[in-house]
Amino acid sequence: MTTHAAPTTTPRWADSSRGLGRLIEALIGIGLLRRPLFFQARQLIIRTAESNGIPWRARRKELQQAAEPLLAASTTAGLTPPAYYLSRFHAYEQGNLCWQAAAEAEQATDAMALRVWPEEQLMPAEAQARLRDAIHAVAEPLLPASIDRVVDLGCSVGVSTQALARWLNARAAASSAHPPTLIGLDLSPEMLSVARVRDPQGLVHDWRHAAAEATGLASGSVDLVSLQFVCHELPQGATRAVLAEAARLLRPGGVLLMVDQDPGSSVLQRLPAPVATLLKSTEPFIEQYFALDLPAALQEAGFRNPSIRACDPRHRVIACLR
Ligand SMILES: C[S@@+](CC[C@H](N)C(=O)[O-])C[C@H]1O[C@@H](n2cnc3c(N)ncnc32)[C@H](O)[C@@H]1O
């Protein structure tokens, strides 16, 4: 496993103050260019995914149909999302708050896992399992023997939450302990509706519609907080607020497990300009994410001894104790 020093340098393409980054910023600021760019990119993403064994369109139809009736049960009445959450994420006009984004999230997550090892011929499920196993392996040495309650902040359609459930249930079974209670939490009712459809066995006990920075869960009630691929979707102030909430939720000795893009990864540093343009135009807060000194933010939130590891060629895991 490689370890990158932190804080790491923002890749040139993401730095809008100079050079390539400034050019990309100017290009994506031209509204007329954005639509055709998104359209072409979307067609390419779907074609590539389908040729790699991800049934993108068929699965979208199936998931949306099954999830639509679950929307009311997945919505907390009166919850207003913060303004940044209404941004145009991933080229969806309504960001994470629409059926298209929710019914394509599983496929997009599998496509993301396949992109990590482009030179290998992996099945989507195999790539996903490899990605999650490497994340869990970083947290394993920090975990207490018995884990009662786990919350997955920004759970989306539950890919990360179900992987946590499989890992932690097997871990509990190996020591004859009770399997933990798992909570998946997200701000998108559409994502949570799809998560329910994807979890027919009820591996996850509660799919909760709330903000990660104001979960409404009791202080000191959780042993493990997971925050997977969420911080690159947050402005820096929101990341700090989420870390403070995670610290509040964890019991002393509890563990925070984070994973996201690794700005120090050579793959990200050397991203070809067209791919970088696309990434930057669909991830409105990625520059803020790269520029944030996460170890300092974690310390400020009350965490100790962060262990930062590259878990694969594109991502870094941060695991730390409360
Ligand atoms: C890329 S997805 C993460 C997927 C999932 N954790 C995984 O690893 O497969 C990011 C998710 O974070 C959610 N999210 C973003 N900001 C949030 C916030 N402030 N509170 C709760 N969820 C949030 C989005 O709705 C989206 O579902």
Provide an overview of this structure:
This protein is α/β, with parallel strands linked by helices and 322 residues long. It has one domain: 3-Layer(aba) Sandwich (Rossmann fold), CATH 3.40.50.150. Helix content is 45%, strand content 15%. The protein contains twelve helices and seven strands. The protein has helices at residues 19-28, 31-51, 56-67, 99-116, 124-139, 159-174, 189-197, 236-249, 266-269, 273-282, 286-291, 294-301; strands at 149-153, 181-186, 206-209, 222-228, 250-261, 304-310, 315-321. A seven-stranded mixed sheet has the order 3-2-1-4-5-7-6, sandwiched between helices. Helix 8 (236-249) links the parallel strand 4 (222-228) and strand 5 (250-261). The longest helix is centred in the N-terminal third of the chain and has 21 residues, at 31-51. Bound molecules: S-adenosylmethionine (SAM). S-adenosylmethionine (SAM) binds at residues 85, 96, 109, 154-156, 159-160, 186-188, 191, 211-213, 228-230, 233-234, 238.
